Amino acid sequence: MLDDIDRRMLRVLQQDGRITNQDLAAAVGLSPAASHDRFRRLRERGYITGFAALLDPEKIDRALLIFVEIQLDRTTADTFERFAATVKRTPEIQECHMVAGGFDYLIKARVSDMAAYRAFLGETLVNLPGVRETRTYAVLEEVKNTVVLGV
């Protein structure tokens, strides 16, 4: 179970994953040794799952953000497994969630522009295993985009 110091530590790390142990210890009011021990424990227990560099999509030619509703033709275990395996190998797809409601999956993807999306739709999305129908929503403005979880 997390205590207040663990929660503070997780908040600080989400803001700056490259913070030194010395600075992290000062930010949460611990000695460097105690900070290191807590950090190690949080990783071992799976609270911290990894670290990554956050990239500017426009600078790497991935400016267009799209969401796609996917409806499958069959909802069988085999169809779900084949669909998921293919999605995991598709680099344009950042997130894919099985959802309850009027469709089966919600995909978040990034491509360079509408022409690239048209190619992605025709060559990749409609050829995913079991896809019957897609609905696309192109994002006009990102109002909020964060990976920070409230702890």
UniProtKB/TrEMBL annotation:
One of its GO terms (cellular component) is cytosol. GO terms for biological process: regulation of DNA-templated transcription; response to amino acid. GO terms for molecular function: sequence-specific DNA binding. This is ArsR family transcriptional regulator. It comes from Caulobacter mirabilis. CDD domains: HTH_ARSR. Keywords: Activator, DNA-binding, Transcription, Transcription regulation. InterPro entries: ArsR-like_HTH, AsnC-type_HTH_dom, Dimeric_a/b-barrel, Tscrpt_reg_AsnC-like, Tscrpt_reg_AsnC/Lrp_C, WH-like_DNA-bd_sf, WH_DNA-bd_sf. Residues 2-63 form the HTH asnC-type domain. The keyword Transcription regulation applies. Pfam families: AsnC_trans_reg, HTH_24.
